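Suppose you are handed a protein chain with no further information: no name, no annotation, nothing but its sequence. What can you learn? This example shows the usual starting point.
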Amino acid sequence: MRRSIARTVLASCFLAPIFAVDANDLLETYRKALDQDTTLSAAKFARDAAIEVKPQALSAFLPQLNGGVSGTRSRTSVTQSDVIVLDPAQPPVAVEGTTTFGNDALSYQVTLSQTVWSFEAWRRLRQTDSQVALAEATYRSAQQALILRVAQAYFVVLSASDAVRTNTAERDANERQLLQAKKRFEVGLAAITDVQEAQAAFDASVATLIGAERTQSNARRALGEITGGYAETAEGLIEEIPLASPNPVSVDDWLKVAHDSNFDLQIAELNAEVAKKAVGVAYARHYPTLGIDGNYGENLNSFSRNPDTTRGQIGLSLNVPIFSGGLTQSQVRQAAATRDQSLAQLEGSKRSIERQTRDAYQGVVSGIASVKANLQAVKSNQTALESSQVGLQVGTRTEVDVLNTLRNLYIAQRTYYQSRYDYLISVLTLKQQAGRLTESDLADIDRLLLAVPVAAPAP
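A reasonable first move is to predict its three-dimensional structure. Written in structure tokens, the prediction is:
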């Protein structure tokens, strides 16, 4: 049942096919990030380093061969004394002589050791399977995180660009409104307060535009931090994007898939598994180890009176740990505490991922309603602005009324644009929680991009 649900989620497509202008800016940005993002590169190198624990653990069961060579030069002086009787009638004569000789000695030795059995080494070797799987899951999680980070940074650029466009249109509209207010004041159809209100609105829109341009520049630099270069341009979304509900429609189905496929949950589970096996590794230090040790060596001397020697031996060695000052017992307790810590973190990860999956699911569902509602708000504010402008002409509305409706229109436009990005991020986040986020999901969004962003409508 879970496999069928997983296949359904994998095959589901939130975004219906769009036959629009073929755009590749988002995909190109992501592909640059694959090569340039330092976070992903660090995760890759960390995985490559962690994979080496398996051959390192396996080496404990392979022969260990070591060789050594040493050379010495020595000089020896021997002094001998003796008593010689030359004439029995005379006292003995003491004779002393010194002999000096040198020797150049060369010795070499080859040592071979082979572990026959070690409980600690065997359990450590079994632990490496979980460690390698953990490294791979961590890297896969970083890959999915990169997809989401690129999309988020890219949408921040688009949102900032939307703000610049709408603020520019708002400034231009306020400028036109200011000119109209001045003309109406000149002919006696408006009070000076109307001009002052229009001037204040124009000045505020200019200041807001300056802030929006700075935000846009910072957003591009943040995207360039991922891709390794300053993001000069970014494309815009089509005016109305397709809004598809999650498939499958039940949040429980998404939770089941997340329980099976979420990489962060897999990381927590593998961490717990590694910690469990570490307890066995620590406890195995109480058990004896059996090995084979052998060596062969020669000593070569240049002095003829020092004979050359050759030696070789081989044998079994059994090492039985009896008492280590409490070190092994302490290591077992430490490993057990680490295991309990990882189990607690695993339970916390399960709860967190369930919450995040539900939140992403609700983000998709509520995002659809939010986009529709914000689009309707734009249309309603456009109608309200037109009514206010007509009312100003006939005298039933004031300049303040027109400026307020104008400001409300552009706020509604910016809110509508942002709601589309929030919806798409929720879609990607939900797939990430399910462990199904791939480059093809960015391709679906890429098809919704236009080479030239839609200009903010001018009232």
